Amino acid sequence: MEDKIYKITLADGTVLENLTLNGNNFISGENIEASTFEMNCSPVIVSDGTTEEIHENMELVQVSVVEGKTWFVLRDISEDELEQAKIKADIEYIAMMSDIEL
To answer: Highest taxon of the source (predicted)?
Structure first.
């Protein structure tokens, strides 16, 4: 059985190609820095050459180098997490505008 080769397209159009998948770890023969993913994971398109999945809100969980290959994990951010982040930002904004220390 052949391993599938994946391609990930980040929000800014950066394309990460020739990726393999081990569990939930994408593996690249190229060096990929964590900064590649910063503010760049909404949306993310994952393609295996046959199917394409669009993930509206993702984040980098980890990136590491093992035996010269870059391993990285992305995860979907849930609607609940997005809602909580919005509520927190709203509270911080109101506190700032009211000159209240949180």
So the answer is: Bacteria
Distance, CA of 72 to CA of 40 (rounded, Å): 15
Q: Is the pLDDT of residue 99 over 90?
A: no
Residues 37 and 12: their CA atoms lie apart, in Å, by: 10
The residue whose two tokens read 């994990």 is 73
**Amino acid in the structure at residue 9:** T
Rounded to 5 degrees, what angle do the CA atoms 88, 94, 99 make?
Answer: 125
Q: Which of 16-20, 24-28, 87-91 has the lowest mean pLDDT?
A: 87-91
Alpha-carbon distances, residue 70 vs 3, 30, 33, 59, 79 (angstroms): 17, 7, 9, 17, 29
pTM: 0.79
